[in-house]
Amino acid sequence: MSNNNFDADHLDTLDRDLDRLSSLGAATAYxxxxxxxLGISFVFVVLASLLATxxxxxxxxxxxxxxxxxxGAYMALNIGANDVANNMGPAVGANxxxxxxxxxxxxxxESAGAxxxxxxxxxxxxxxxxxxxxMETTAVFIWAMLAALLSAALWVNLATYVGAPVSTTHxxxxxxxxxxxxAAGFAVVNWPTMATIxxxxxxxxxLGGTVAAAFLWFIKARIVYQPDKIAAARRxxxxxxxxxxxxxxxxxxxxxxxxxxxxxxxxxxxxxxxxGIAIWLIMIPVIRKQALGLENRNKSLKVLFGIPxxxxxxxxxxxxGANDVANxxxxxxxxxxxxQSGDFTADVSIPLWVxxxxxxxxxxxLFLFGPKLIRMVGSQITKLNPMRAYCVALSAAIxxxxxxxxxxxxxxxxxxxxxVFGVGFFREWDTERRMKLARVAADLPERPAEERRRRKLVRxxxxxxxxxxxxxxxxxxxxxxxxxxxxxxxxxx
Length: 493
Fold this sequence. Notes:
two-stranded antiparallel sheet
């Protein structure tokens, strides 16, 4: 009898121990995931540095270029972790794409945009932020670009950690400005250009939010609030998809294909108009077929916007790869050119191997660290469905076109997130308006202020965090870069 008791107690103890070990194993696996990402990132940075030794060759400046290539790889990883979320977040938040599919599509199209259509020239470093001729020597210029690149990467890394989508281009701009001031004084900065960039902090999100809200209002008025939603969708969804196709064709003609062919705005608009009309005509029978058998309710409408939303996310990624990667790796390209030729005043050509580092770094950064910001943009600011996400994606393309026409500088990050805010605040306003009309019709009293606050559809804490991060991006990157330049210059001297 005692043996049986011993066996039962022993087995019970063993089960508890195994449970503890199982929990410990799960906890260890969970804790080690970030370490795996950091480990892969470290290996990529080392490989990028080795790539620089292969393509740059042996010279007096090889060590500098190797270090810069590693920093450039680190920057590219941070772009993938932060910036790409703006393109994929709405599609994931609307459940049009799974997280895995979004990462795969973004990795392919970001890389394709960078390598096939990426700008091969960065005009006078980061859009003319500083005058390189004011630098005393080639070495000072190289240290300034290295400080700018490292400060931008560190700032974007910090922003990703706190969950704030920021503009990587603005981070580079701030880094270049800060290092330039530290190296050659305030006169080195092109202040009119900086003023236009500061204006884009307001212009980009407001314009993106307004366009997104306008399209959401149109969809609600013409489709969602109609008695026969499916009949309205058959009429208007082909038109909306045609508008999206035309907008993206214009956007890509202007911004995404500049390396292959130079196209002015009027020509790009004509291309967009032709493609938009063609897609509209093609989509009429497609949408009619998709709408067969659908119930007359809002949930059925989501089916009709799914494919256009996925295509728009892929095209946004391609255009982002073509535009923003070149700006992000611009300081690295400047270091390579200055190290090879000693000339740091001319326009900077971006070697293919530098673009490869940028493209691969974005893909790795997105895969390893991107989901956090994708969830933030897609679902934590406001709730998105395919129709709302469609409005965000469309606003990104249209806003860039309008800004180019007006000659205004805009940030793709600010436009996309501004579109999410615009959709969310429009929903708040529209919901409040409809509830007020219903209360008036039913002769009901006004809701208490506390209840109205609880019903906010945009999370205010995220809104304030993101706005604050946008405002301080350029000055924070500039201050960090100035300090890094002084440290690097002191070590090198």
